[in-house]
Specification:
This protein is of the alpha+beta class. The protein contains 2 helices and 5 strands, in the order E-H-E-E-E-E-H. The chain has one domain.
Length: about 120
Amino acid sequence: MIGDATSLNVYLAPGVTDMRKSIDGLALIVSEVLELDPFSESLFVFCNRGRNKLKILHWQTNGFWLYYRRLEKGRFKWPAADSSYDAVSITRRELNWLLDGLPLHQKSAHRPMLYQAVA
């Protein structure tokens, strides 16, 4: 499941995506437009024009998962699209912020600490 996979790469598809697309259509966008492997251990996140719907495509072992989230009120803080079609790589932490309705870059968030052994 999505909540158990902590080491997955997360990619946002820039711009807007037609939410009528299902697994095959989204996998085609991943391979042809983003030039990434839809069968990799990654999460690919897509957003609609109204920014109130997200789909997440995820390959696991022998099949695809397709997660869908629709907000009844409010909008996702989806990053603005630029002129390129390159996927935007984000962390799982940033994905959680996005799903919670927060911007990707939190100025007041605690920075991750790295443990260093004392010799």
